[in-house]
Amino acid sequence: MGNGTPRTLYEKVWSDHLVTPETGDAPAILYIDLHLIHEVTTPQAFSVLRSLGLPVRRPDLTLGTLDHSTPTTPVSALRNIPVVGDGAARQVAQMESNCREFGVTLHGFDSEHRGIVHVIGPELGATQPGKTIVCGDSHTSTHGAFGALAFGIGTTEVGHVLATQCLLQRKAKTLAIEVEGRLPPGVSAKDVILATIGKIGVGGGTGHVIEYRGRAITSMDMEARMTICNMSIEAGARAGMIAPDDVTFEYLHGRPLAPSGAGWNAAVKRWRTLPGDADAQFDKTVTIRADELRPMVTFGTNPGMVVAVGDAIPDAGNAGFRKALDYMQLAPGKPISDARVNVVFLGSCTNSRLSDLSQAADVLRGHRIADGVRMLVVPGSQQVKREAEALGLDTVFLAAGAEWRESGCSMCLGMNGDTVPAGQLSVSTSNRNFEGRQGKGSRTILASPMTAAASAISGHVADPRQYL
Amino acid sequence: MEPVTKIVSRTVVLPVSDIDTDQIIPARFLTTTTRDGLGKSLFADWRYTPDGSENREFALNRPDSAGCEILVAGHNFGCGSSREHAPWALLDYGFRAVVSSGIADIFRSNALKNGLLPVVVDDEALHWLTENEGAEVTLDIATSTLTLPDGRAYEYPIDAFSRLCLQQGVDQLGYLRQHEDAIQQFEENRPWTP
Fold it and tell me: Taking residues B40-66, what's their average pLDDT?
């Protein structure tokens, strides 16, 4: 297994999980350590199991939540939740009955741990270094922040994992993204990843697993690292990883599903062997200078169309570029800071953790959001919500005029009742600015929590550094 | 999955790069618990006007597009979410193959699992196809070639296993389940347990 050949982090985790190696004729069979499931991409997979009379092979390695199609409106009494539409209600009901019937733990409406699947996995300590983690959701790349190999799969593959705990996979190529130097104040992980996608393009990581390295990455806390890995898929890479270190171990220590006692020491010892060997080779390397970064936002209809908040919208001149600007009702050559904002969304698996809310609250404290702007704050999990409330962050948001919600995917993808009305412009801490992503006809500008908060105060796209 | 060996069809062209899965099937149509009936929502926000009528300008709505089984699209088709509803919607509508100069990883994997053929060609071939909408194109699975009406043939990349699965309509879950012994052995022999 390559003793003597230097290996990257990805190559180590990959080879540790080979049930059978790949050959010219057949892909590898890769063992999966953690299968996260939610209500939207699993019903058809459970139907296949049922029709074949198969059990879930490892319910103990499977963990469910309700997040995508569930509402975030405040709950008056338990179970009295106004799920949007019959379809969503049916999905939620099927998820509950599927998990009950197949013996899978579900963090449903009655669980204090319910939340966005990519927030609760780490929060519970289920996400761990060296694991293979999959979910029927492309932002599964988030969990790579712990040195796990984590990627999104389709529903057919969800069925494969439920039935066999394995996937058929071909080994990916490797791409190193070196983020050198130190981040200036007011510039966050979100700005790093937006700048990175702007540099390599939305297809730049296709066929690759990214490893983020360098001083700016190692000096980040786990929540910032999750923001980075989360958007790997926005550069086309199914997975993004960061080598586990003391920051990782400290985050995990004491979490409910993390190893404990003697098991903890053994796990840490094993995790310390995971970082790539010093002279391991990557297929491609890209360097980003952290010190040169400024707060970044998108201006087009994919996450690679980015500009610094202080700059003018560029002009690439081609038809696709112009089509994107037409949709956004923005003009090349104009400062992006001219754009008037209707809605600000703080949330999503990219930026809904405690530090995200806290950074936004630091900008908002003592200010009111501008007249005519609606700001929605949606914590990533019920636990994040409780922790934020314990710190009084909810009071800051409410005093500024924002809405404080229950956890869920919310306005990130407009399928649960939280949408941006047609034609309106949203500054959003989520991950996709595709046409109509936040609701039919919605226009989305992606930004960091600090930039989103500053834009809410100003009523136009604004640099947060003026409020710090 | 039905075996796929050869596709001969005229093309419909969407000359746009980075068509994401939210365009292929917007999220509001994902509150479903089956695979069926998604074709009517394919490209919904491009295909229908705000009042729900058909947008006559959109390629799929042009009379010549009826019955076309091959979709030609710009670079990086299928980027974005992992929703398998995207290939389900394309197949339900009647497409059997997507041709582009680049196809996103998860979409490609989902497409192959459902018998929708992802075909990646070079810029020259894509340019010709884009300029010649409606041309009759032949896709041969056994030889992994796309052949233009003038006989020019382009080999497209596909791994041997995926090709075999398409040709024979192999159920990959069945294939995985044949390896149950190896899976069990892996679980028993690994030095740590998750």
Answer: 96
Kindly provide the ipTM of the predicted complex, given to two decimals.
0.97
Average confidence (pLDDT) over A436-458:
98
Please enumerate, as own/partner, the contacts of A330-335 that have beta carbons within 8 Å and a separation of 24 or more: A330/A299, A335/A310, A335/A311
CA B73 to chain centre: 11
At residue B114, does pLDDT exceed 80? yes
Q: What is the pLDDT of residues A92-139, one digit of tens each?
A: 999 999 999 999 999 999 999 999 999 999 999 999 999 999 999 999
Q: What is the pLDDT of residue A299?
A: 98
Residue A319 φ/ψ region, left for φ over 0, alpha for ψ in the -120 to 50 degree band, beta for the rest: alpha
Q: Do B20 and A441 touch (CB under 8 A)?
A: no
Closest-CA distance, A177 to chain B, in angstroms, reads 19
Helices (H), strands (E): how many in chain B?
8, 7
Closest CB to A91: pick one of B33, B87, B180.
B33
* Phi (first) and psi of residue B98, to 5 degrees: -120, 130
Q: Tell me which H or E stretch contains A246.
A: helix A246-252
Asked whether A308 and A296 are in contact (CB, 8 A), the reply is yes
Residue among A24, A43, A266 minimizing CB distance to B33 = A43
- A423 CB-contact burial (10 Å; exposed 0-12 / middle 13-18 / buried 19+): exposed
Model confidence at A1: pLDDT above 50: no
Query: Do A43 and B83 lie within an 8 Å CB cutoff?
Result: no
How confident is the model at residue A4, as a pLDDT?
78
Q: Which of residues 68-107 of B touch A (CB under 8 A)?
A: 74-76, 79-84, 87, 102, 104-106
Report the pLDDT value the prediction gives residue A43, as an integer from 0 to 100: 97
Dihedral of CA atoms A134, A140, A145, A150 in degrees, nearest 10, equals: 30
Residue A15 sits at the chain B interface (C-beta within 8 Å) = no
**Does pLDDT of A78 surpass 60?**
no
CA A293, A298, A300, A301 dihedral sign is positive
Q: Do A61 and B180 touch (CB under 8 A)?
A: no
Average pLDDT of the residues of chain B: 97
Pull the structure tokens for residue B118. Answer: 């992802």
For B160, the closest chain A residue by CA position comes to A25
A335 touches chain B (CB under 8 A): no
**pLDDT band, residue A332 (cuts 50/70/90):** very high
- Report the C-alpha gap between A65 and A115 in whole angstroms: 7
Q: What is the pLDDT of residues A153-179, one digit of tens each?
A: 999 999 999 999 999 999 999 999 999
Identity at B85, one-letter amino acid code:
H
pLDDT in tens, A298-327: 999 999 999 999 999 999 878 889 999 999
Picking from A1, A12, A17, A19 by the largest number of B CB atoms within 10 A of its own CB, the best residue to mutate is A19
DSSP states along B132-178:
TTT-EEEEETTTTEEE-TTS-EEE----HHHHHHHHHT--HHHHHHT
Of A153, A207, A436, the CB nearest to B26: A436
8 Å CB contact of A207 and B80 = no
Contact call for A44 and B34, based on CB within 8 A: yes
Scanning every residue of chain A, which has its alpha carbon at the shortest distance from the alpha carbon of B33? A43
Which of B33, B35, B106 is the closest to A152 by Cβ?
Answer: B106
